[in-house]
Amino acid sequence: MNYPAPVAKLIVFWTRLPGNFRGILWLSLGAFLFSVVDVFVKSLGGRFHPIEISFFRYSCGLIFLMPVFFCMGIANLKTERLPLHLLRMGLAFVAQLGIFITVIHLPLADATAFMFSKPLFTTVVAVFMLREVVSGRRWGATLIGFIGVLVLVRPGSEAINPIALVAVASAMTFAVANVLIRKMSVTEPTGRILFYYHIGGVILFGGPAAYVWTMPIGLEWLLLISIGGLTTIGIFCFMRAFTVGEANAVGPAENLRLIYATVFGFVLFSEIPSVWTVVGAAIIVASTVYIARVEAQRGR
What does residue 273 show for φ and ψ, rounded to 5 degrees? Predict the structure, then answer.
């Protein structure tokens, strides 16, 4: 394909960058987009039910991904593992709804910190579901990471925020769903998993969304549609990041999402992270980065 000279030069410049650097840029962009989605969800949460927001997330995502599904064709979308798809979809939908509830009712920095605990739960779940062998170093880092989760929840405080428990449950449920993807990926390509995931989301949330429906007005339409669109683009950025770069080099860039969440929370919602949030998030991030490095060494 013949591109205009400026575009061609930009493409050449981009492809000459080191793979890990391109991966970091892709992941940084994806983390930023997911943070923007959280801002939209929090902004709309006072007027729209999380179920309706979830419906827009899946229906708009399905529309944006439709060209990909058409290119795959019916033959490539057929599956013989529908029960596993249904199980994974059900878990992911519950977790997604929980995350939206968390984002709406907790400060953005807190909600994002809880999301970072998914790799910790993934370690535990993978041992039982996939019979993975986990090294002592990884177990140690995982236990330290759970200390960070406890710091965020603060079980010794006078009244535990129930939304914090929803956040922990959502991270754990998403971890189970992610481990199921590993199990499915032996026979199921990514496009097929995304197809059933979005179709299922539209079907599952369609009826309840109609029951709690609030008609969007003006800019609200754009924000709700953007939740699905930006999430889809963010997923693509993450996929590209780990395609062109090494996981241990690229993965830590996702930690920028915590910085984005803190800045957005302060500027847009006047949220100031507590000392507990900073300490808990630091422990979780440090443990997950260490786990990623241990897995990279194991892979080599």
Answer: -60, 140
In whole angstroms, give the CA distance from residue 286 to residue 252: 10
User: And the tokens for 220?
Assistant: 């609200």
Non-local CB neighbours of 18 within 8 Å, separated by 6+ positions: none
Helix (H, G, I), strand (E, B) or coil at 148: helix
Q: What is the pLDDT of residue 213?
A: 94
Amino acid at 43: S
Residue 148 burial by CB count (10 A; 0-12/13-18/19+): exposed, middle or buried?
buried
Closest by CA to 250, choosing from 284, 296, 185, 299, is 296
How far is the C-alpha of 48 from the C-alpha of 233, rounded, in Å? 23
Residue where the block lists tokens 């929090």: 42
- Among all chains, which residue has been given the structure tokens 């914090």? 164
255 secondary structure, DSSP code: G
- Between helices 136-153 and 118-129, what is the axis angle to 10°? 130
Backbone angles phi, psi at 274, to 5 degrees: -80, 165
Measured between alpha carbons, how far is 54 from 151 in angstroms, rounded to an integer? 29
Given a cut of 60, is residue 140 above it in pLDDT? yes
User: What are the helix (H) ranges across 17-135?
Assistant: 19-44, 50-77, 82-105, 108-115, 118-129
Q: In this structure, which amino acid lies at residue 251?
A: G
pTM (2 d.p.): 0.85
Q: Residues 108, 39: contact at Cβ < 8 Å? A: yes
User: Is the pLDDT at 156 greater than 60, yes or no?
Assistant: no
**pLDDT digits over 33-69, tens only?**
999 999 999 999 989 999 999 999 999 999 999 998 9
